[in-house]
Structures are given as C-alpha cells and as structure tokens.
Amino acid sequence: MRVDVVSIFPAYLEPLGLSLLGRAQRLGLLEVHVHDLRGWTEDRHRTVDDTPAGGGAGMVMLPEPWGRALDAVRRGEGPEGPVGSAVPARAEDGAADDDPVLVVPSPSGRRLDQRLVRELAGEPRLVVACGRYEGVDERVLVDAAARYRVLPLSLGDYVLNGGEVAALAVVEAVGRLLPGVVGNPTSLVEESHEDGLLENPAYTRPPVWRGQAVPDVLLSGHHGEVARWRRQEGLRRTARRRPDLLNALVAADPSALDAAE
Ligand code: ADE
C-alpha cells in the first residue's frame, strides 16, 4: 500500500517511521510519503489560509495550494516532482473505483471504526489531507471528487487542532492489518473490536502480584475453559464499558450472544 500525507506540519508525521510501521516500510510492505502543503504555495509568505467568507472566528485553508497539492499527489508527485513508486493514471473511462481514497480528517466526518479500517486496508493507495484551523475550503473536496474517492473521517466526537493526529491513527490502524506487518496474525483476530466486543483482560507472570492472583482458569491448561472465560470476560467488560457495542451486536444478529451461555 502507498500512503501520501499532506500537512503543513510534516514533522508531526515522523512517528510513522518508528516501530512496526517503520519496519513495514523498510520491508517494502508499506510506502509512506509525507508532503509539506507549503511546497505548493506560490507567494513569498507561503500562505495557506485566510479569513472565513461570511466572517467569524478562525482561518480557513485556501483552495489553491490544496488544489495543486492534490493534483500532484494524485500523479505520485511531491512539490519537487515524482516520488516513490509509479502510480496508475486515472482511467480514460473515469472508472472511479480505481481512484485513490482521499481521507480528509474532520470532526464532521464519518467516524472511524475497525470495519472502516479493514476496508481501507484493502486499498492500494490512500491520500490523507490534513487540514488545520477551521478546515479546508469546501470547494477543494468537491473538486477532488473528480479524481479521488473523498472520505471525510472523524476520530471521534471531540475536536483536535488539525488532522495530523487522525492521520497517524488511520495509518497505524490500517498499516498493522497489512500482510506481514504484525508478526503473529492471530493477535489481529483476537483483539478488541474484531468480533464487535472488547477484548478480555490480559495477565502474565508472576502468578501473584501485590496480592492479586492471575485467575486460576488461565493457569489450568484447559484450552476450552480458557476460551470460554475469555469470551465471558470480553462480554462482561463490553456490557460495563460499552453497552452500545453490545446493543449493536444483538441488533445485527439476535443470536450473536447465544454461544456465551
Ligand atoms: N480534526 C479536528 N478534529 C478532528 C477529529 N475529531 N477527527 C478527525 N480529524 C479532526
């Protein structure tokens, strides 16, 4: 998968070079390019924002640098020209299915969840457009829809200063699902949200720590009992912390919890 991120704070994205995602890039499993939006400005001050039409607080990002940036990145170019592996040109017949997904972080976007993460992990190309301030001029998104599948995306119902933290979250959540990125793929199946539930509590050595014992069943060696305990504890935790998830699971499949009895 190739990911391009456009931001006025490229340094914000440096952690993408660390840990599992850094290793994934070195192994060629994931290609990440971070671009400075100011590279597509044409004035002396490298201006990227202006006051909102109609008045009000804050600043809105200008359409011109974003338009140039998204045109170039679509072609696989940064401000200085081509970068990374070649990208397919847009099909003559305008087959929109082949267009890259343009992720636009915004508190007014679709909420990111593991289902969407899985969908995005099946894409060959993602472009993330990190806005700041009060957002990006709306015409940029309308215009971009001619060569991207535009996906306004929210991390949750709260407001961040800009899209960079969301870009980190998306690339990490998606990147770890790419084949070969996580060493033991079964850990991807057994974790929170993969089956619509939160994961059970986890324990390791020592068997007793500060007066608290690891639950006996986990030390019993009975795999069936351990699996049953994990499922029950996952359910218990979900009911307590995220009853909304449990309700959604039962609404989608009324027999979803039958195996828990
Ligand atoms: N930018 C500002 N707030 C955001 C949020 N909640 N999710 C994604 N991007 C954002």
From TrEMBL:
GO terms for cellular component: cytosol. S-adenosyl-L-methionine binds at residues 131, 155-160. The keyword Nucleus does not apply. Pfam families: tRNA_m1G_MT (PF01746). One of its GO terms (molecular function) is tRNA (guanine(37)-N1)-methyltransferase activity. It comes from the Bacteria. Gene3D superfamilies: 3.40.1280.10, tRNA(m1g37)methyltransferase, domain 2 (1.10.1270.20). Residues 1-247 form the tRNA methyltransferase TRMD/TRM10-type domain. It is found in: Cytoplasm. Keywords: Cytoplasm, Methyltransferase, S-adenosyl-L-methionine, Transferase, tRNA processing. One of its GO terms (biological process) is tRNA N1-guanine methylation. Its EC number is 2.1.1.228. Its main location: cytoplasm. It catalyses: guanosine(37) in tRNA + S-adenosyl-L-methionine = N(1)-methylguanosine(37) in tRNA + S-adenosyl-L-homocysteine + H(+). Residues 73-100 are annotated as: Disordered. Homodimer. This is tRNA (guanine-N(1)-)-methyltransferase. It comes from Pseudokineococcus lusitanus. The lineage of its organism: Bacteria, Bacillati, Actinomycetota, Actinomycetes, Kineosporiales.
